[in-house]
Amino acid sequence: MVAAQIFNELDHHVWWLTWRWAVRQHPSKSKKWIKRRYFGKHNRFRDDHWVFGERVDDHARYLVKFSWTPIVRHQLVRPGASPDDSDLIEYWAKRRRKVTPPLDGYNLALLTKQDGCCPLCGEHLLTADQPPQSPNQWERWWLGVARRAIAADYLTHERHGTPDGKRTRMVHTSCYRSLRARNRRRLATFSPAEPSGLA
Fold first, then answer.
1. What does the alpha-carbon distance between residue 30 and residue 67 come to, in Å, rounded to a whole number?
2. Where in this chain does the record put each Group II intron maturase-specific domain (predicted)?
3. What confidence tens digit (pLDDT) does each residue in 73-124 have?
4. What is the mean pLDDT of residues 18-47?
5. Exposed end of the chain (fewer CB within 10 Å): N or C?
6. Measured between alpha carbons, how far is 64 from 68 in angstroms, rounded to an integer?
């Protein structure tokens, strides 16, 4: 049995346990009320509305799902292939191109659609603190950069208006905060002054 199938079965079992607990806690409430109270899209990097958790002070606390664990299938290195061999540059470059970031399909699609750049500042969404010095370090570096970016609250989602309606895009958290601050200042500048009450 493959790991993905086992993870899905474990997630279903945990969902059943949490759902049964919630129903017992609120026997007089409807299923819709229970779903709204305990389940939702608490992980903003996952397009999943059945995550068990709660929001406290604009922060979400939730159960991590087993299926979110990245499954890495290691590709064996060709016998005798050395990263220092100048004749094998194309071989190592081809291996590096096969490495994908540890993101789910939803966020990977956003990253691809934006060419890996933040639409607010134009910089790359995933940047390297220190680029790899050899092909041997590349895979470990790429996985580390993406995980650190997500874990450090480095990226976020923003809903912006387009002619086709609201669209979601991935942006730097710092850029998003700056944009919100500028919008608040703009609204404060154009809002009419309140009457002082003095006559």
1. 28
2. 2-39
3. 767 777 877 777 778 778 877 776 666 555 667 777 787 788 878 888 888 7
4. 91
5. C
6. 7
Q: What is the 3-state secondary structure (H, E, C) of the chain?
A: CCHHHHHHHHHHHHHHHHHHHHHHHCCCCCHHHHHHHHEECCCCCCCCCCEEEEEECCEEEECCCHHHCCCCCCCCCCCCCCCCCHHHHHHHHHHHHCCCCCCCHHHHHHHHHCCCECCCCCCECCCCCCCCCCHHHHHHHHHHHHHHHHHCCCEEEEEEEECCEEEEEEEEHHHHHHHHHHHHHHHHHHCCCCCCCCC
Instruction: Kindly state the tokens that stand for 124.
Output: 């790359």
C-alpha–C-alpha distance, residues 193 and 188, integer Å: 9
CA angle 98, 1, 10 (to 5 degrees): 95
What are the structural domain ranges in the chain? 3-68, 75-191
